[in-house]
């Protein structure tokens, strides 16, 4: 059984296409339980309108009920800082948009702790982060 989580970019692109069905996902397949990152939820709420907020409330409630919400712990936060420092040392702090990468790095470090595969539409950022830390990620086909 290989757990996975959808990055914010997957939810957003799916919702922009008018497809609310991604909110109902609990599993991607019989052997792939889906997790929800609290970081992804925060990003989704930050950009949501009234209609989307209701969908997100349902998403949050459903994942809380099945106990599959990934919440970063202290070690994840520390590892995220170290990861961003390595990226900044290689590319320069200002040139990488470190503030922009923080949430993706936090998703990567927390998911790697539990061996969760990240599915994303944001290839650029996750490819960059994977040069400095090992974690499982791939492009979403949703």
| Straight-line N-to-C gap | 20 Å
In terms of quaternary structure, the protein is single chain
Count of DSSP strands: 6
Uncertain runs with pLDDT below 50, 5 residues or more?
A: none
What is the 3D shape?
A: globular
What can be said about the biggest beta sheet?
6 strands, mixed
The CATH superfamily appears as 5'-nuclease
Which CATH first-tier class would you pick? Alpha Beta
Let me know the average pLDDT: 89
SS strand fraction: 5-15%
Number of separate structural domains: 1
| CATH architecture group name | 3-Layer(aba) Sandwich
Structural class: alpha/beta
Helix content: 40-55%
Radius of gyration: 15 Å
Written as H for each helix and E for each strand, in order along the chain, the element string is: EHEEHHEHHEHE
Provide the CATH topology.
Rossmann fold
Task: Output the number of helix runs.
Answer: 6
Would you write up a description of this structure?
The chain has 142 residues and is an alpha/beta fold. The chain has a single domain (4-139), classed as 3-Layer(aba) Sandwich (Rossmann fold). Helix content is 54%, strand content 15%. It has helices at 8-16, 38-46, 50-65, 74-91, 98-114, 123-130; strands spanning 4-6, 27-29, 32-37, 69-70, 117-120, 137-139. Strands 1, 2, 3, 4, 5 and 6 form a six-stranded mixed beta sheet that branches. Helix 4 packs across helix 5. The longest helix is centred in the middle third of the chain and has 18 residues, at 74-91. It is globular and about 40 Å long.
């Amino acid at each position: 059984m290989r757990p996975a989580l959808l990055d914010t970019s997957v939810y957003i692109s799916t919702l922009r296409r008018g497809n609310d069905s991604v909110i109902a996902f609990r599993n991607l397949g019989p052997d792939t339980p889906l997790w929800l990152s609290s970081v992804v939820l925060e990003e989704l709420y930050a950009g949501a309108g009234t209609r989307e907020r209701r969908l997100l409330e349902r998403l949050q409630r459903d994942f809380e009920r099945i106990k599959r919400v990934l919440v970063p712990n202290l070690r994840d936060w520390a590892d995220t800082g170290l990861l961003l420092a390595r990226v900044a040392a290689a590319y320069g702090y200002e040139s990488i948009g470190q503030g922009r990468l923080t949430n993706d790095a936090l998703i990567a470090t927390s998911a790697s702790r539990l061996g969760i595969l990240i599915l994303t539409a944001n290839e650029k950022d996750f490819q960059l982060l994977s040069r400095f830390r090992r974690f499982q990620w791939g492009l979403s086909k949703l």
